[in-house]
Amino acid sequence: QVLLVESGGGLVQAGGSLRLSCAASGLTFSSYGMGWFRQAPGEEREFVAAIDRSGGGTYYSDSVKGRFTISRDNAKNTVDLQMNNLKPEDTAVYYCAADWTPRALPSRVEGNYDYWGQGTQVTVSS
Known about the structure:
With 126 residues, this protein is an all-beta fold. It has strands at residues 3-7, 10-13, 18-25, 33-39, 46-51, 58-60, 68-73, 78-83, 92-99, 115-116, 120-125.
């Protein structure tokens, strides 16, 4: 059984930082591209960041580029999202996801991901 479990969410003031972590089990972690998505109330889920199998390739949405950093540790089966200079518009439930298909670039397409975590809430106050 594949499990992705996110942690690290919480309440932070604008300009602050949070680090999300996703722990994976039940899969060969190094064989999966990993991504972070988020969903704000009343909005559709949107792409945030993705990282390839080796960790050498990363991809960000324009809204978080320069503020967020995705990284992975294949020895620990974890993928992290360091979020700096947070803004109220970053408030959302954040999900990690795993993509089994080999790709030239990490995917930003939600439908390409095979497994999803349950999400962790991030709230940024102004």
